[in-house]
Design goal:
The complex is a heterodimer. Chain A is an all-alpha fold. Chain A contains 21 helices and four strands. Chain A has a two-stranded antiparallel ribbon. A two-stranded antiparallel sheet of chain A has the order 3-4. In chain A, helix 2 runs antiparallel to helix 5, helix 9 packs parallel to helix 13 and helix 15 crosses helix 21. Chain B is mainly α. Chain B folds into four domains: 254 residues, no CATH class; 259 residues, no CATH class; 29 residues; 64 residues, no CATH class. In chain B, strands 1-2 form a two-stranded antiparallel sheet. In chain B, strand 1 and strand 2 form a beta hairpin. Classes of the chains: A mainly alpha, B mainly alpha. Chains A and B meet through helix 7, helix 9, helix 10, helix 13 and helix 18 of A and helix 6, helix 7, helix 24 and helix 25 of B.
Chain lengths: 483, 773
């Protein structure tokens, strides 16, 4: 029991602190928002430290429900970075936009707790609990501005569609349980390894269960054709919330996707590979083509994230260690680019009002040269132009795909990159070559400049010191497949 | 050392704005020119060893263990390019200081320009394919920034994006090809790949790899039909055109093909593809050139011709052709860079780019005129200039080609004639003849702008008169690098009277005739120009962009329309398709046909559920709909109970009751049903419902082979007394075996109770304060 508790120390700490902060908020009332937000950041930092300091050996605790391994540690680190930065960035936003309620950071903490659980799930049960804790918190956060129609509508859409996806996931999980008699990942893996060794085809129930689970998880990573909520929710939710949605939950869902597919279903790769290939191709295509004539930067980011998920899924589709490594690298870089871009978007205010039009970025290089430079770095990187970090993300997934002889996937990835480059370049053209419109309100706030600056530097200089991330991802991928 | 040399451009570029600010435009640009000059000297130090057949390789680990190496390779080919890049770069940097004198953004210009130079050096020296690709795209990127440099014009912004898209698209195709090569050969180093030529050529994917590599090379080197971006890139400031779009960047594609020649070249596929694309581009480029009147456009199209020529020569691939390519590469770089710089001088000093609006400029700018004449003769291929040598060898190579010799020779002669006309158009027309009034009063250019054209002209004459100099230093080693083995080279200016010379004379005569009738020729070709503008590849590019916008528009219309019901339909139908797909491909269709053990009351419940569901879709009353939904739910609960899951049944009943009550409460306050859905919509929904239901039924019938696992109830029966000391098993389970569950449930109930209490209390407080209900 002691070992069990010691292993879940980060999650335990996060849960207890979140509840303590909730009490603090309740007793201190509305004025406590600033304090709660600040303490939430501290909690995230400490949780990050706890994850960081924990040994990276593979441990399974709570009767096989919970796993701690190198893969989980890496992904949790990313999630916590995403959460922490999102919280910091929302600081001024919630004040200005009149949504400064202490529930906001608390809900984000609970969502994060759910994400950590997802990443460490080693059983269909704990998977579902983590996923739902995350999802339920996110539904509420999406609709956090109850007084605006857009926010409530997006929250409702997210909830209804999300509930359907959870239902599908559960249906799949019960089919799997029905045909194997276990929900534990290790037992499932052993059972399927046996089937495979015997050269048998898994029964139809298992395959359909797998299909349903894959569909439910695809919804959570917003892969096509389960993506429809993404543009509407990204646009409707308050921008600070969108920034959060685009970072930590994406990482968590992707980590969970990788964990489930490569872990218990690793030996059924022949059964799920085609599904992943299909949704990867569809996501890349839609992400590239649909983004083109968007006028809202938030919708554009939504399509961009769909496209990026498609690329990351190439790594999963490969179904190899190299593929998972590619996926991890991709998501790491995606996180940094995304946080940086949203820092810019959160600074887009004119005369005290948020603006969201892509055209509002016109001539940014003249009005705010440093901000334009940072945004240009993010856009070039998202377009996959070397030597920026985004290129390496793409490179590693393409490499994995070609090694796994998934040529069609790699070629479509390349083609959609070109189409994607078109709209990222358009933004750069607007910022650098067009006549400026009104300047944005100053000051942006020191924390915003910091996020933009650090993210920009990381993306720009990744190629100088790529080893920490490349090797970290290698170790994490190896850890996932060791199980 | 090599790494430092390559990246020095980025570093010096980074401080360029300060250099310009403190030293002023002219002195600052001279100081910056020291870098390319030093690099030139550094690369020149390799000449003697490389000419002797040696090569050098420098490796710096980048991300160890991951096949990422910053490795550079020096042989004749890369050294020729490196010398051209640094040498011409020196003059360009000096020239730009004068050309863009007092431009407020001059510092930024040098960041891009020096950055480009560094990228280009990296490109030609890289041995690792990833390094190569990184630098390749960096040249596109810096080119993008340089083309858009004068961004006051809407046109130049659009065209900057165009050049970037075409080259980046090609670059990505090349990346795919390179990675496939790495997978096939098991190495990421080009020198190692090329050392074993048969591995790639014999591989099943040879054709795909070659196509991908060629797409990259053709897009970068503006081969038809991807040639259109290059003339459009002339929106860039003239020094940029001279540097990037004539002598260096556009030759990156040629470089790539030359580099790949040992590994991929020599097959029929390679020879035919390159010869044809190159030959057609060669002719088309110069054919389009004489239709233009803007001097930079004429030069740009003639550059397209030169790139086509090089591609064709690499395609032919005989020793003679490769030597010709090496010679042509150098000759072209000398005269074309000079001509661009001269075009910039005319624009700068006389204020126009339109050839029809200039003439007799030799009176006011004699030195420029002299340099232009030298470059023009070399372009036209008149002895004793280096260009003559290149043209003779080109004709000999096409005559000796293994495949398509006749076609290629005809194209080459035609192109040769037209290029003579081009030389006349860009040199004789502006500088000789009667004086024409120009927008600005022309006068001689400053020394900084003249030094480039003059020195390059001297090289053109020098190498022409002493071909042995070129032979001993670079040409032999370059050709050897392309061939992958040593090549015997002897260059003569005078090849004697032979067929090639005869053809050359014919070409020159025809070219002079064309030039003299230029105005008439142009008028005749107006129709062709109009046709190619509306149906050519560039029109295709713009249509393609329109198509992209159209697709994006319709996807928003159809898929992303904001209506949740469509989202739900998409998700549900996807699941149906996936499930059916799994059934068809992954299982033998085997239905459980006999349903034994079905009791009559089970059937009755099923019937009630179905009837309630049908009624639910039928009714127009909201209350009736809610009630029938309740019936479905209770029916399901009954099924649970019948299949010995009473706890599940009870939960279901509770949830169902609550749902129905809530629905009634909420819906009661809403207005009457508006009959929103049309019959067509209802029919569609019926179809979807039946499809989903049918699929699930089919699925259940097909997976009859459920394994039943040992129920866990026996565990409780056996252990409830011995372990938990209790006889009432249900009680024991609740308070003992699942005590934590029970605690949780109590906790949840209590919490809900508190919540309800709080809401009631708050509401009564609100009311007592007279707040809204």
């Amino acid at each position: 029991m002691t070992q069990d508790l010691a292993t879940i120390a980060p999650e335990l700490f996060l849960a207890v602190s979140a509840m303590a902060l909730l009490m603090l908020g309740v007793f201190r009332g509305r004025e406590s928002t600033g304090l709660v937000l600040m303490l939430s950041v501290v909690v995230v930092v400490i949780t990050f430290a706890l994850v960081w300091l924990a040994p990276s050996t593979r441990v399974v605790v709570f009767e096989g429900l919970f796993i701690r391994d190198g893969f989980g540690a890496f992904m949790k680190g990313l999630i916590l970075i995403g959460t922490g930065v999102s919280l910091v960035m929302s600081w001024r936003y919630i004040e200005r936009e009149n949504m400064a309620q202490f529930e906001f950071p608390i809900l984000i903490l609970f969502a994060t707790l759910g994400m950590l659980m997802m990443v460490s799930a080693n059983d269909l049960m704990s998977l579902y609990i983590g996923l739902e804790l995350q999802s339920l918190s996110l539904y509420v956060i999406a609709a956090f501005r109850r007084d605006t129609l857009r926010s409530t509508e997006s929250g409702l859409k997210y909830f209804v569609l999300g509930a359907l996806a959870s239902g599908m996931l559960l249906y799949g999980a019960s089919l799997i349980y029905g045909f194997t008699g276990t929900t534990n990942f290790d037992d499932l893996a052993a059972a399927f390894a046996e089937t495979r060794a015997a050269g048998e085809m898994p029964s139809l129930g298992i395959i359909v269960g797998l299909v349903f689970m894959a569909a439910g998880l695809s919804f959570k990573v917003s892969a096509v054709p389960f993506h429809m909520w993404t543009p509407d929710v990204y646009e409707g939710a308050p921008t600070a919330v969108t920034a959060f949605f685009a970072s930590a939950p994406k990482i968590a869902a992707m980590a969970l996707f990788g964990r489930v597919m490569m872990g218990p279903f690793g030996d059924l790769v022949a059964q799920w590979q085609q599904i992943i290939i299909a949704i990867s191709i569809l996501s890349m295509l839609l992400g590239a083509f649909a983004a083109i004539n968007q006028t809202s930067i938030k919708r554009l980011m939504a399509y961009s994230s769909i496209g990026h998920v498609g690329y990351a899924l190439i790594g999963l589709a490969a179904g190899t260690e190299a593929g998972i490594q590619g996926l991890i690298i991709y998501m790491t870089i995606y996180l940094v680019m995304n946080l940086g871009t949203f820092a810019v978007i959160l600074c887009m205010r004119q005369k005290g009002r948020m603006v969201e039009g892509i055209d509002d970025l016109r001539g940014l290089s003249r009005t705010h040269p440093m901000m334009a430079a940072a945004m240009a770095i993010f856009m070039f990187s998202m377009a996959g132009i070397p030597p920026l970090a985004g290129f390496f993300g793409k490179l590693y997934v393409f490499l994995a795909a070609i090694e796994a002889e998934l040529y069609v996937l790699a070629v479509i990835g390349v083609l959609t990159s070109v189409v994607g480059a078109f709209y990222y370049l358009r933004i750069i053209k607007l910022m650098y070559f067009d006549e400026p419109v009104e300047a944005f309100d100053r000051p942006f706030g020191r924390e915003m400049n910091l996020v933009m600056g650090v993210a920009g530097a990381l993306i720009l200089l990744f190629f100088v010191f790529p080893s920490p991330i490349l090797e970290g991802a290698e170790i994490a991928a190896a850890a996932l497949l060791a199980g | 050392m090599m790494l430092a040399a390559v990246i020095s451009g980025f570093l010096v570029g980074g401080v360029a704005p300060w250099v310009i600010r403190y030293l002023g435009d002219s002195r600052g640009s001279l100081a910056l020119a020291a870098l390319p000059a030093l690099l030139f000297v550094y690369f020149a130090s390799f000449v003697s060893s490389v000419a002797g057949g040696e090569t050098a390789r420098m490796v710096t680990p980048w991300a160890p263990g991951l096949d990422l190496m910053l490795s550079f390779y020096v042989d004749g080919l890369s050294l020729s390019f490196a010398l051209l890049i640094s040498g011409i770069g020196t003059f360009i940097v000096i020239y730009a200081g004068s050309y863009l004198h007092d431009h407020p953004q001059l510092g930024r210009f040098y960041i891009y320009l020096l950055g480009f130079m560094a990228s280009m050096l990296g490109l030609v020296l890289a041995d690792n394919i990833i390094t190569l690709f990184v630098f390749w795209e960096l040249t596109s990127l810096t080119s993008f920034l340089l083309i858009g440099f004068n961004h006051e014009q809407e046109k130049s912004r659009k065209l900057a994006v165009q050049a970037m898209l075409v080259t980046v698209a090609g670059g990505l195709a090349m990346l795919a090809g390179l990675i496939m090569m790495a997978v096939v050969t098991g190495t990421f180093e080009l020198s190692e790949m090329m050392a074993e030529p048969d591995v790639l050529k014999a591989h099943a994917h040879y054709t795909i790899i070659t196509i991908l590599i060629l797409v990259g090379a053709f897009s970068k080197s503006a081969q038809a039909p991807l040639h259109f971006w290059l003339p459009n890139a002339m929106e860039a400031p003239t020094p940029v055109s001279a540097y990037l779009h004539s002598s260096t960047m556009v030759k990156a594609g040629v470089y790539l093909m030359a580099r790949m020649h040992p590994g991929l070249g020599g097959t029929d596929f390679w020879i035919i593809t390159l010869s044809l694309f190159g030959g057609v581009t060669m002719f088309l480029g110069v054919f389009l050139a004489i239709q233009q009147t803007e001097i930079k456009k004429v030069l740009a199209y003639s550059t397209v011709m030169a790139l086509g020529t090089l591609t064709m020569l690499i395609g032919i691939g005989t020793d003679g052709a490769l030597i010709a390519a090496s010679v042509f590469l150098l000759a072209h770089a000398f005269y074309k860079a000079a001509l661009f710089l001269i075009a910039g001088i005319i624009d700068h000093e006389a204020g126009t780019k339109d050839i029809t609006k200039m003439g007799g400029l030799r009176h006011s700018m004699p030195i420029t005129a002299a340099a232009a004449t030298v470059a023009g003769f070399s372009l036209a291929g008149i002895p004793p200039f280096f260009g003559f040598l290149a043209k003779e060898m080109l004709l000999e190579a096409t005559l000796d080609a293994d495949l398509l010799a006749l076609v290629l020779t005809l194209l080459a002669v035609g192109a040769g004639a037209l290029v003579v006309a081009v030389a006349g158009i860009v040199v004789i027309r502006p500088f000789y003849g009667a004086k024409v009034e120009t927008p600005k009063k022309p006068h001689e250019a400053p020394m900084a702008m003249l030094v480039g054209p003059l020195v390059l002209g001297l090289f053109g004459i020098g190498f022409g008169l002493m071909p042995g100099l070129a032979e001993r230093t670079l040409v032999g080693a370059t050709a050897a690098a392309m061939a992958g083995e040593p090549v015997d080279v002897t260059l003569y200016l005078w090849h004697g009277f032979n067929l090639a010379l005869l053809l050359s004379v014919i070409a020159v005569a025809a070219g002079i005739f064309l030039f003299l009738n230029w105005n008439r020729v142009r008028a005749r070709l107006e129709g062709v120009k109009a046709f190619s503008e509306s149906y050519g590849p560039e029109a295709g590019y713009w249509r393609g962009l329109d198509l992209l916008n159209w697709v994006a528009f319709w996807q928003t219309r159809i898929l992303q329309n904001g209506y949740m019901r469509y989202y739900l339909i998409t998700i549900v139908m996807t699941m149906v398709v996936l499930t059916l797909y799994a059934m068809v491909t992954r299982a033998t269709p085997q239905l459980a046909t006999t349903l034994t053990g079905v009791q009559i009351y089970e059937l009755a419940i099923a019937l009630i559920i179905v009837l309630a569901a049908v009624f639910l879709g039928w009714t127009h009353s909201r209350l009736a709909a809610v009630a029938s939904l309740g019936i479905v739910g209770f029916g399901v609960a009954l099924v649970y109970v019948l299949f010995s899951a009473p706890d599940l049944g009870i939960t279901q009943v509770l949830v169902e009751t609550l749902t129905v009550l809530l629905l009634v409460l909420v819906l009661f306050r809403l207005p009457e049903f508006l009959d929103l859905s049309s019959n067509a919509v209802r029919l569609r929904d019926l179809g979807i419902g039946l499809l989903v239901g049918g699929t699930m039924t089919l699925l259940l019938l097909m997976i009859g082979d459920v394994q039943y696992f040992e129920p866990i109830s026996w565990y409780f029966v056996e252990n409830s007394y011995p372990i938990a000391q209790g006889r009432n098993i249900v009680n024991v389970i609740l308070v003992d075996f699942r005590a934590l569950d029970t605690l949780g449930e109590i906790y949840v109930l209590a919490l809900a109770g508190i919540g309800v209490y709080a809401m009631i209390k708050l509401r009564s407080e609100d009311q007592s304060k007279g707040g809204p209900r």
